[in-house]
Amino acid sequence: xxxxxxxxxxxxxxxxxxxxxxxxxxxxxxxxxxxxxxxxxxxxxxxxxxxxxxxxxxxxxxxxxxxxxxxxxxxxxxxxxxxxxxxxxxxxxxxxxxxxxxxxxxxxxxxxxxxxxxxxxxxxxxxxxxxxxxxxxxxxxxxxxxxxxxxxxxxxxxxxxxxxxxxxxxxxxxxxxxxxxxxxxxxxxxxxxxxxxxxxxxxxxxxxxxxxxxxxxxxxxxxxxxxxxxxxxxxxxxxxxxxxxxxxxxxxxxxxxxxxxxxxxxxxxxxxxxxxxxxxxxxxxxxxxxxxxxxxxxxxxxxxxxxxxxxxxxxxxxxxxxxxxxxxxxxxxxxxxx
Length: 338
Ligand SMILES: Cc1cc2nc3c(=O)[nH]c(=O)nc-3n(C[C@H](O)[C@H](O)[C@H](O)COP(=O)(O)OP(=O)(O)OC[C@H]3O[C@@H](n4cnc5c(N)ncnc54)[C@H](O)[C@@H]3O)c2cc1C
Ligand code: FES
What we know:
This protein has 338 residues and is α/β, with parallel strands linked by helices. The protein has 7 helices and 18 strands. It folds into 3 domains: 2-100, Roll (Ubiquitin-like (UB roll)); 101-200, Translation factors (Elongation Factor Tu (Ef-tu), domain 3, Beta Barrel); 212-334, Nucleotide-binding domain of ferredoxin-NADP reductase (FNR) module (Rossmann fold).
């Protein structure tokens, strides 16, 4: 006995998958070669979110970080927590179908450099052992890295537009204590073997038809470094782009020279920074990242891309909802504990 789920993508592609009794929508889709975005599989990260358009379902668990009450009320569910209760059901995923046809692979790599770029962040550079092995991804997507010497895996957004000469970079926050943070601070040495699984995630630039608001909290900047680098390399983006970059302390600001270079490389790109708890010596802006949002810029239709800690994403979404701003779409990647 099985039910049928229609999986509808934003580019119009629809796939039908047979879902066994008590099988999760996510597992059924994967069995049929439809690799839906997935990370935690526990109803926490929201990566597998979709809109139930028809049919009855049982949803096991939805963490408040994954979907808001309002989104649940609108019919959003999580594919990793959803079972079908009717013979047919339809689910809309706000991503392009080609993202899901790319199977993830585990790649062997070697740490080629590690650099502490601020008090609370490091850049990890990994070189793939087999440069001929393709690792196609879209900037904004992420990889899961196996922390050397452990069997723990952690998710990190690509900080480069593509694999270049076999190399990849990641901008990683150093927590006072954590499996990856401790490894990077205490033991990481060029030459260490490191495995990575990629590509993952559905956070990537959609076709750019209107101005872009990019909002980075802390190392959420990583995804935007990759996206902006891609736009600069393509040289096709005529739309204005504003990046608002917020951190806790001024020492957390990273990669400012790279952002300066991107303002030169892109026709209409500007960024601003803000610090929540600065020292007395700080002469820049103090506050939260939403304090940087410019109502004049946001009066026109725009697309918003948000990346970083969940509270920053929620605050930014609420700010936009509560103001009279232009018609907009919001895409986000929450750095939940992975
Ligand atoms: C899709 C995705 C993409 C991500 N991309 C990035 C990225 O590009 N750069 C990056 O720095 N991080 C990113 N993260 C977060 C990252 O995967 C790890 O969760 C984080 O680096 C902590 O790992 P750790 O091993 O050092 O700490 P852990 O051993 O996992 O945690 C140690 C302790 O710190 C807490 N903790 C974990 N994360 C946080 C946090 N963010 N803030 C406060 N406390 C925390 C844990 O609950 C635990 O108590 C991403 C997460 C997701 C889901
Ligand atoms: S993969 Fe479903 S909520 Fe994280």
